[in-house]
Design brief:
The protein is an alpha/beta fold. Among the domains are: 35-241; 349-506, no CATH class. The chain is built from five helices and 42 strands.
Length: 540
């Protein structure tokens, strides 16, 4: 009887375990089924014979011929169900897909996520989208939705195509391993995304992609983003006419290269945005203000952050201010760390950096080498508070003043800064200082003032052997200071000699004129006397 009881209990326990296991399996299957129900897969093949069949695309063999036809087939098979929380994946077979047949344009897509991916993930060059433009955009969203919408593009090559995605509502865009190239004479950029006001879900991410050989009309932007979160990682942007323009955005750029970009603004024109750049190279770019980056105020907003680290700026050119960087009117943190600025040139001010009206600029562990500008060979400061730390400034040249730095109405602290072989054609081989304060904690200049020039007084410099904090060029420069700076004192001496020559010439001229006047007066008086004498003799 006892054995039967044990066996009976064992049977009950076995049945219980079986029921529990079946319940768990059923729940997992249901969960998997629900997940899969939110994703639909359709196939697109240029060579398909399905031109109008709205029930195509469920298999590779029965692929749809165009992208819009695949979307219509998906809608047809949805039987009127809610698709706003679903994802449609369109697997595209190799071929050239022209815009005339494949542009979604202004169609009101209600799908939550539309994902267009190369069916052969190992080759992004065999699926080509061609000829999209202002009249035939790939996607265009202008109707505000109460749900989020996303676009995903994977392993696609775009040629001769602009205006790929445009939206005035907040959307999410994810572009991976794509190439966009060979666009010419277009006034429409590649992406125009404007979310007003700022919306946390509005974002675009571009990774492992190339954007090259884009020629837009003057004033156009290849990227134009407003109120978006932007991320670029491992992106090559090369041989572009136009600019990447952002307004009130939060942008991160990493592991990327921007080269040979020509812009009437700046390759990256940031207005009222936060910008974070790491491990990125800017090479041979050409612009108006900021050969690589322009970072400016937007309206009354002034609390923007710029942080650039581990990046290189080489051979950039600005026709006005800042061979590589133009900074203006931001009151939040601006930082350059472990950056190299070499062979940059600014036609007006600041061979590498030109900064106006900043109250927190930090330059940490950077190198400035062989930059050139008329004023401020490496850096131009105007109404700036800045800390320069552990930085090398060498071989920079100013064709006028301030071979390394030109400092105007600013407060600068230099800690462990090394100056070597900088030169100015006129004044201040290292620093030209006007109405500013410079605190030198430690540098190769400590103990002397070689290469400093302060033409109008008003500069307070601590950390060097200036008598009473003065430097060459001020009215009461000390004799010891004059003997320590051969270049500056020689220039001052030449100016004094010129003044003496001019003064002596003027005085000498006055004396000569006076003598001539006396001679003329004496001569006239003598003539009058002779006339009077003649009259007297006649009367007699």
């Amino acid at each position: 009887m006892f054995k039967l009881s044990i066996i009976f209990l064992f049977i009950i326990y076995f049945i219980h375990c079986t029921i529990v296991l079946n319940a768990i399996t059923t729940n997992n299957n249901n969960s998997s089924s629900n997940d899969n129900n939110n994703i639909s897969y359709y196939y697109v093949d240029l060579n398909s014979s399905n031109n109008n069949n709205t029930n195509c695309g469920l298999t590779i063999k029965d692929a749809c011929k165009t992208l819009p036809l695949a979307y219509q087939s998906f809608i047809s098979n949805s039987n009127g169900s809610d698709i706003t929380n679903q994802e449609l994946v369109l697997y595209v077979n190799p071929g050239v897909y022209n815009a005339i047949d494949n542009a979604f344009g202004n169609n009101n897509l209600n799908i939550g996520i539309i994902n267009i991916s190369n069916n052969n993930n190992n080759n992004s060059n065999n699926v080509i989208f061609n000829g999209f433009n202002y009249d035939l955009p790939l996607f265009s969203y202008f109707i505000t939705k109460n749900y989020s919408q996303s676009i995903v593009l994977n392993n696609i090559q775009f040629i001769n195509s602009s205006y790929l995605i445009t939206s005035t509502e907040p959307i999410q865009v994810d572009i991976n391993n794509c190439t966009i190239s060979n666009v010419s004479s277009s006034n429409a950029g590649l992406f125009y995304l404007n979310s007003s006001p700022y919306y946390l879900g509005a974002a675009i991410t571009i990774t492992n992609s190339k954007i090259e050989n884009i020629e837009l009309t003057v004033g156009s932007s290849f990227f134009s983003f407003t109120n978006y979160t932007v991320s670029l990682d491992n992106v090559l942007i090369s041989n572009i006419t136009g600019s990447y323009t952002m307004y009130n955005c939060n942008c991160t750029i990493s592991n990327s290269i921007l080269t040979d970009i020509t812009s009437d603004k700046s390759p990256i024109s940031s207005f009222g945005s936060d910008l974070y750049i790491d491990s990125t190279s800017f090479i041979a770019n050409d612009a108006n203000n900021g050969g690589a980056i322009s970072f400016e105020l937007l309206g009354s907003k002034s609390s923007n952050t710029l942080k650039i680290s581990n990046s290189n700026f080489t051979n950039n050119y600005a026709s006005s201010y800042g061979g590589s960087i133009f900074l203006s009117n931001t009151q939040k943190s601006v930082e350059f760390k472990n950056c190299i600025f070499s062979n940059n040139s600014g036609l007006s001010q600041g061979g590498a950096i030109s900064a106006f009206n900043l109250n927190d600029l930090c330059i940490n562990s950077c190198k400035f080498d062989n930059n050139i500008s008329p004023t401020g060979g490496a850096i131009y400061f105007n109404q700036v508070s800045s800390n320069i730390i552990n930085t090398q400034i060498s071989n920079n040249n100013a064709t006028k003043d301030g071979g390394a730095l030109f400092v105007l109405a600013s407060n600068i602290t230099m800690n462990s800064v090394e100056f070597n072989d900088n030169s100015a054609l006129e004044y201040g081989d290292n620093v030209d200082c006007i109405t500013s304060s410079i605190d030198i904690i430690y540098s190769t200049l400590s103990g002397n003032f070689s290469g400093f020039y302060c033409p109008f007084g008003g500069c307070k410099i601590s950390g060097l052997d200036f008598e009473s904090g003065k430097c060459p060029g001020q009215n009461d420069t000390s004799s010891s200071a004059t003997s320590s700076s051969s270049n500056e004192s020689e220039r001052n001496s030449n100016r004094k000699k010129l003044i003496i020559v001019v003064v002596c010439s003027i005085v000498g001229g006055i004396i000569v004129l006076g003598i001539i006047a006396l001679i003329i007066s004496f001569y006239r008086k003598n003539q009058i006397n002779k006339i009077d004498e003649s009259k007297y003799l006649l009367n007699s």
